[in-house]
Amino acid sequence: MPASGWEKGQVENQVGLVRERFFTPRLRFKSYAELNAWLLDRCLSHAKAHPHPEWPDRTIWEVFEEERPRLIPYSGRFDGFHALPASVSKTCLVRFDNNKYSVNASAVGRLPTIPLIKLSKTG
User: Fewer CB atoms inside 10 Å of the end CB: C or N, the chain?
Assistant: First the structure.
């Protein structure tokens, strides 16, 4: 979790970039399995087609494949996020865990369920 405001801003910026890159236009899926399969395909396509930020002469995929044997396999359950009902303020903000997060203006005055990233594993 970011420790200061500017780090939180960087995280929100990256989330925005990922949303724009993978979810524009807004797509519809029949199930989470179908969504996950589509996301996996898009992520792999992106990694195979784009240069790595530190080694621009190699793709992200090539660097990942080189590092893969050194990765520690994970077994067990990992909840990547969980959703909670949250009240949205007139300023389009949701407060959670002493942080404020911006949401779409259409959610103001409603009680939407907000997916929140959870950075700890449960077992």
Answer: C
Which has the closest alpha carbon to 12: 82, 78, 102?
Answer: 102
Q: 114 forms bridges with which residues in the sheet?
A: 84
CA dihedral of 39, 112, 110, 17, whole degrees rounded to 10: -30
Report the domain count for the chain.
1
Give the chain's length: 123
Neighbours of 32 (CB within 10 A): 8
pTM (two decimals): 0.48
Residue numbers of the domain that contains 99: 76-123
In a domain, 1, yes or no: no
Residue 46 lies in a domain: no
